[in-house]
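Appendix B. Chain record.
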Amino acid sequence: MNKRQIALWASYDFAITILELNVAIYLSEWLVIDQGVSELLYSSVLALSIILALLILPVLGLISDRYQKRLPYLYFFSFTAAIAVVLLGYFGLTIDHRPTLIALSLLLFIIMNISYQGCLLFYNALLSRISDPKNLGLISGLGVSAGYFGAIIGGLAVAAFVNGYIPIFRIDIPILGQSPRVYAFIPTAILFIAAAVPSLLFLSEERVKEKLKEKLSRLKTQIKETPSYYQSVISDIKSFKKYPDALRFLLSFFFFNNAVGTIIIFGPLYMERVFHIDDFKKLLIIFTSLVMAAIGGTFVGWYADKIGHKKALQRILIIWMILFGAMAWSNTVWFFWIINAIGGFFFGAIWSVSRAFFVTLIPENEQGKFFSFYSIFERFAVIIGPLLWGGIVTVFSGWGSARYQLALASMAILIAIGLHFLQKPKPRRQSE
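Structure tokens predicted for this chain:
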């Protein structure tokens, strides 16, 4: 076990979560509240980006398996995501014509989200290379915890550009002052790339020395064989018959991710619509959850290695069903804050244990292919949840803030369906 490689792998989670958190906090509010985009349109564009990822990423996963190369794709998607977020900020500051700005912003959102999914795919596929079956949960949990610490640090830094002060500590930065939410995007992209540089430079995989002519020839072959890769994807979907437990897990993952992913997207809007709280209090609630998530990601990952990843995941999902009901029932900010903090602990846990359990269900030499499906199921789940949320909020528009509480409570149903599909899967490789 190479501790340096583990640290570098976990540090990429630190970086990518800076991007994820700040986009989740500011983009939906900037588009929906500041630019007047409907929640249903926002959810629909998100769904479109996932469908496009579904068409692109499995093929790239297959190519990466064939050539056993993950890092070149990680480089490409990291920089593409960062450029898209920079352009979101640039256009938001320079274009006054609202329809043009909204159209360009939604297009860049699609590009950014596809790239973000690509980052996760090839980052996750590196897990089996730096760990062994006995410490999958612990190492996966270290990555999750590093990610939430990245979110805390990156969130505080970016909030300073928007609010003119560092949240929690209330340290004023007069040179910045109060700014629109759009000012969050360019600093987010810069922080993401700066934090990702050590991983992108020093993470290693077996390298085959190639001359430029050989690289170009390989690229030409990959392009020529693209149609056959799509046929392979169809074949791989059919081949899940060989790995029924992996498919059952992905179905479970799909449903419980619907719930958990939706609260990431609409959490800030929920707090705005139901409790009418300012951005400072929102950030305090979010950062409390992030601290708890960082603790939970490592602790529960270690605990899952001891009692078994499946058993740990089942217990986490039961707790989440209770938490969704409690959050929806909350009628004071303080009670919501406490429940949200408890949810944060199990939020970190759900990712670390899910990733570690999935590794035990799939063949070791096909990580890229299977993690492309893992990534797609993870993000494809964030189609149904937001559409369900947007549909409830639209249909029950006369209910005021209660429609948001109903939308939040409905997520517990999706958790219950996910728990049902988790009953049968058993690990192929014994890590528990």
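Further analysis of this model is presented in Appendix C.
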